[in-house]
Every structure is written in structure tokens, then in C-alpha cells.
Amino acid sequence: MEILKLDNVKKYYGVHTNITKAVDGISFHIDEGEFVAIMGASGSGKTTLLNCISTIDSCTAGHIYVGDKDITKIKEDDMADFRRENLGFIFQDFNLLDTLSIEENISLSLIINNEDPNKVDHKVKDIATKLGIADVLKKFPYEVSGGQRQRCACARALINHPKLILADEPTGALDSKSSKMLLETMADMNKKLNATILMVTHDSFSASFCGRVLFLKDGKIFNEIVRGNKSRKEIFDEIIDVLTLLGGDVGNVK
């Protein structure tokens, strides 16, 4: 089942003869249960593309479907409801509220949606148990470890059972140990909870956790790697080869 489909998506900035083609005719799809990375050098269009998919920005031309809904045709007044019902987000700095407990951070979107309090309690405990943070629900973000805060952010992204989870450079502000912990949690979300995840990253180590990697160059798809039965080390090496062709950064697998 297709969760996300892009059909000849374009995003241009500027006017007349001074036009920048940030996204230039991109088409691809993501099936339910996939974990996909988008990579590319700075200016390749990866963040602009994610902004269009997340409805933060609108595309100039083309169509983007989440499930059976064409998000390019959703009215502005209905956009917030669409995001809340269909998309989950994992932010680089996690955006947890320090004045709320871990439990309250996870349940906030359900409360805003006027969900039945008994259902809220059940859903929070269920997802917290699956992600291993049930024992810290009453604590505040500053009282728990970095890894527990990461899992709280993942639980918050999953709580509404979104069709698609979007992550923009989620490890960008983390050290190598914390990055690996977060990526392992996201991989578990994908494998054990069948979460469909699209992650934008510049980091080859992060992308090696994914089942498929799309590479952008000058607003277009340059290459694609499918993991299949390959090991993470094997797909990491392939990512390095493509990044070398792109002139991108090369990291070290851990």
C-alpha cells in the first residue's frame, strides 16, 4: 500500500529570469512500513522537498499524495487537521516542553483533539511500554536521560498512529552515542510497530539504518539505493560511493 506518492513535484523560487529550481520534477513513492532516507549536499533540495511533503510549504507544480489524499488540493483552513491526523514529526531538538511531564508531552496532541481521557491514558501507556519509557512517565524532561527524551519524542510522533512520520536531520545536534540510540529506536519503530518513516539527513551513518536511500542533486533524484538483504555496513559503503560522486561529506560507520 502506497503511503506517500510524489508526481512530478516542482518548487521554484524567484520571478522571470531569476528563478531557482529548488525541486525540479521529482517523482517517487513510499510504501507502508518503509524507512526511507533522502540525502544530498546543501542546496540539493532535500529540505525544501520535505517542507512540501509536510505541508509547511506548497509546491509550484505536481501532486503529493498521502494515502489517497492529494495534499496540494487541501484548503488552508483544513491543513492543521490534516497534519494532526496523518503526520508525525521528529524534530532535531525534540521540542519537548520542560513544564510538562513525559506523559503530558506524549499525550498533548490527544488532549488537544479532545480524546477521551481513558483512551489517552491507555494509548500513552501502550506506546511508552513499547518504547521502554513507561517507568519515567511522571518525570519531567530535565529529570530523564537524553535517550529517554529521544524515545519520548518518538512516542509523541507515534501516538496518533500517523500514516507517515517525517524526521528532518534528527541526529544533527546529537553526539555519536545519542545518534545511534535514536536511530536504533527509529529502526525499532519501523520494524516492530510498522511505522512508515521518511528522514532527511546529510549523514551516511544515519542513512545506513534505512531500507532505501534517495539522493538528490540540483533538485532532482540523482540515484537510489535499496538495502534488500545487504548488511548495514554494505549499504553504508554504497552510500559513501554515491556521496563521493556527489562530492558530499563522508562519515564513519560505527
Automatic annotation (TrEMBL):
SMART domains per record: AAA
Q: SUPFAM superfamilies recorded for this chain? A: P-loop containing nucleoside triphosphate hydrolases
Task: Provide this UniProt record's keywords sorted from A to Z.
Answer: ATP-binding, Nucleotide-binding, Transport
Q: Record keywords: ATP-binding included?
A: yes
List cellular component terms (GO): membrane protein complex
What range(s) does the ABC transporter domain occupy? 4-243
**Molecular function (Gene Ontology), one example:** ATP hydrolysis activity
* Entries under InterPro entries matching the protein: AAA+_ATPase, ABC_transporter-like_ATP-bd, MacB-like_ATP-bd, P-loop_NTPase
Q: Give the similarity note.
A: Belongs to the ABC transporter superfamily.
Matching PANTHER family, A to Z?
ALPHA-D-RIBOSE 1-METHYLPHOSPHONATE 5-TRIPHOSPHATE SYNTHASE SUBUNIT PHNL, LIPOPROTEIN-RELEASING SYSTEM ATP-BINDING PROTEIN LOLD
UniProt protein name: ABC transporter ATP-binding protein
The source organism is: Candidatus Faecenecus gallistercoris
Q: Which taxonomic lineage does the organism of this UniProt entry have?
A: Bacteria, Bacillati, Bacillota, Bacillota incertae sedis, Candidatus Faecenecus
